[in-house]
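User: quick one
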Amino acid sequence: MQNSFKIFEFLKNKGYLKELRDPLWWPNSGTFEVVVGAILTQQTKWQKVEKALENLKNEQLLSLEALAECDTKKLSTLIKPSGFYNTKAKRLKLLANNILRDFENFENFKERVDREWLLSQKGLGKESSDSILCYACYRDILPVDSYTNRLLKRFGYEFSEYDELREWMEDGVLSNLDKIAEIYGEEKSINKIFARFHGKIVEYGKEEG
DNA sequence: GGCCAGGTGTAAA
DNA sequence: TTTACACATGGC
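Assistant: Done. Structure below.
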């Protein structure tokens, strides 16, 4: 296998790239909720994250400003279903405050934040940072996760470095944009293609992996 | 009852 | 630079 387009074709043949039910896959893409979800979903099922997000929503805490001011104890209680709730609550609050301090509001954050800034935050590793860049900020980056690793292993591929795998995944897409355009019609956004590709890998992993 | 999920930080060898 | 461990819930 020379590049990740083989994986793309595999998913297409499985029917995973025909219907685009949720084009951007991450719920409420482009909103602050993605940032919160990126931390909540660490080592946890999304179902539990939904519960935690719902609790936050009910308390009107799903905004950058509200979360930054929220009591950490209250926060940890609300996100309890997602596990590691003490750690996650502390990190969420600190992150919200740092975003306000360095970017003033979420719109500025979306426009100006970079990978380096995200990676310097407590609680944001490469996967979470890339998810935020891709699904909250619409940057041209393809996140890789345990599903990606698992699927590739089936193809006999293993990467020891996260970034090595990510670049390999991205390169396979970028060098086959013409073929991908045939599938997605007039779609020209690299971000959307990356997001869909990643999303479909996870969907496949959940349903058949 | 054990295993695991859309990881990350820290400490020790 | 690698490995081990803590963080914690709830569904199967």
